[in-house]
Amino acid sequence: MEIWNGILVKTEKKLARWKAQYLSLGGRLILINSVLDSLPTYVMSLFPIPAKVVKKLDKLRRNFLWKINKEGKGYNLVNWKNVLLSKERGGLGIRNLRLQNESLLMKWLWRYIEEDAALWKEVIVAKYGELNPWCTKITSEPYGVGVWRTIRNLWPQMEGNVYIKVGNGNKTKFWKDGWIDQTSLRELFPDLFLICENPDARVSDCWTEQGWDISLRRLLNDWEVERVAALLEKLAGMIITTTTDKILWKHSKDGVFSVNNAYKRGLMGMTGVPKYNWNYFWKSDIPTKVKCFTWKVILQNILPAEPTLRGPPVVWTWDFHVGGLKFETPCKRKQEVLGAAMFYAKVGDAAMVYTGDYNMTADRHLGAAQIDRLQLDLVITESTYATTIRDSKYVREREFLEAIHKCVDSGGKVLIPAFALGRAQELCMLLDDYWERMNLKVPIYFSAGLTIQANMYYKVLINWASQKVKNLSATRNAFDFKNVHNFERSMINAPGPCVLFATPGMLSGGFSLEVFKQWAPYEQNLIALPGYCLAETVGHKLMRAKPPARIDVDKSTQIDVRCQIHQLSFSPHTDSKGIMDLIRFLSPKNVILVHGEKPKMASLKERIESDLRIPCYYPANNESQRIESTQYIKAEASKSFLQSSLSPNFKFLKTISRADTGFILNERAESCVQVCDDRVAEGAVIMQKDQHPKIVHQNELMDILEAENHKVQVAYCCPVCVPNEPKNVPLSPGEDMHPVLDKRSLLHLLYTKLSNDFQDVTIQNDGDCLQIGSLTVSPCPKEKCPHRRHVNPVSTSEAVNFCCTWSTEDEKLAWRVISIMKNLELKTSAHLELKKCSDEGS
């Protein structure tokens, strides 16, 4: 470990954390690689690097790359194993120390093969012995220096990456070395190897002037003759020369080993990053810091506050503060333009979504815009096509292709003004596919500059494309256009037909306007306007013009337009139906319309308010609009509260189904049942200092507050008429009960009466009292009961008092029972028998 301490100190000094604060990710990457290159190579090329040292050096490099502070606070955004991959395989190309060390040590094995007369080789052979001319025997002794032992253990890796070129055959073993098709004869003919006379024979031993002489220990069986014939056929093309046998490195043209090549071969077995055109990406003419940022985007490892985007993913989430307010802003991918986003902003409890441009309909290269269902106070949406509902996309594409095909067939040139992102790629795919199907040879061009870089990003970020494009990527990249080429300025006036994509899309200036000035005066040419054009732009003027016409390009320039004008809507903006679908899906409390024409926004506002019943506004530029927001209390919920709120509360409503048949309206009551779940969760919110608010069930409230459970109960002593038996029995002193009937008999009589009147309520009789919900009814033996607040309507001898107690939730039920008890007359079987006899006597 001592020889590595200096390297650790030197690396830590060069990768000081304060430097990381002033460098971008690209700058930090360059510095990390330069530090490793400056490490003493002779140390790593002679001594095996311990695992502890690798771990410490990797930690220093990893902390510097991701700007992790001394306390360990920070984010390792990408697995370190993937960072160490080469750039061609999707990593950052940071050196893998273990593989670098092994590649440097393997250099000694190559020198052992090449340097036959070297003194150091003679010392190694004398000490460890020779397994074959290419390597020593395995060293397993515990004593001595372990340097060569480590180097020798790398021979299996070296052996798998070299092959033998036989010369005179003095060094190559006939059976055991892989000198034919880089495979040993022992593996190809194991049955003949078992009966060979000398398993360690050299190739030169088996070669004579007459040919191959293979010595076997015994005579051949019939089935072995064919195997020998196959062996001789395999050897027929081999020629023994007078040169020395050589070992060659498989992975270089000249067969010479190199440390860099061995390192790359070691990385070949490491995987973990999605397949992209990484070579094209890293070699592109883009600043390094932009490449590194895009690399993180491709791997979906932008610093997240909440992980979401999984194809279609959320690209990143920002948390930032403005004026003391915290914004949580996840950027949602909108797939109508690469890299476009819908922004979800939250300030306190107020939440809103700002859409920008979006399209709710999938196109050829990107899918439809997608966003999660959110609880919003406001949606700000663009309304370019506030009153337009587009026709079929396939009809528009067919008209577009027919117009272009007709123009180039007649020898004309086609100019398609388009923006660099979005429409240019979609129309390139459309034309490239059409050119392939129709076998057209007319060149298609797009202007250099931003469009070229945009196409590169489309190729690299193909995982963000539509499902159709991703499925096609298994065979080819849909953005590798076969018929689309770069356009040079000198080709503007070149003869012959062609199709050109040029920016900007509204002919407001730039290269597209320059080409337009040259091509507009000729009738055979075509200007195809695929998108929306602002008023006062040249594109907008062309939409209204009917050639031949004179167009004002600027105050001092006019152009005679005789070319054909074709306008089709391939705009990235959504139409009226798409806007309504988005608002209906998000169901915000308010909507603001922007980026549209005022009359059209007024029409859309009326539709939103009438159909969706959502307040809608369309303020003018620089005009303020005040929106009321909702305040929420975020609270945790207990398990008991959640379980109680999960219980459904279904309500079934019978509806009348009506059938309209011509002039007669048939109305019939069928069993059409509408089911709704009016579920209301009741609980208590506990708010304590320095703790999050919590919603709990009312039954657990007292335990949490560590307080006694107080319950309000109501009591009433109710008299019930029970006529005396025909033969009275004297009452005991102080007894207020019936002289004949006992307690159980009274309760049974009352239970029978109440059961007839309350068939929808469960009544329990345990012999001591009646229980109806929280209501308890029991005979009262007291002469002066404190709950007796009435004047008995019956004589004392005929009244039996019952004490009734109940909770407040059963207040209505209790008074219903009491009102019935007051009017009851509990008659026994003796009364009924007496009445029957008197009826018979009369």
From TrEMBL:
Chain ranges of the Beta-Casp domain: 424-542
Q: Which UniProt keywords apply?
A: Hydrolase
Q: Which GO terms describe its cellular component?
A: nucleus
Record GO terms (molecular function): hydrolase activity; RNA endonuclease activity
**Which domain of life does this protein belong to?**
Eukaryota
For biological process, the GO terms are:
snRNA processing
Q: Which InterPro entries match?
A: Beta_Casp (IPR022712), MBL (IPR050698), RibonucZ/Hydroxyglut_hydro (IPR036866), RMMBL (IPR011108)
Q: Does the keyword Hydrolase apply?
A: yes
Protein name per UniProt = Beta-Casp domain-containing protein
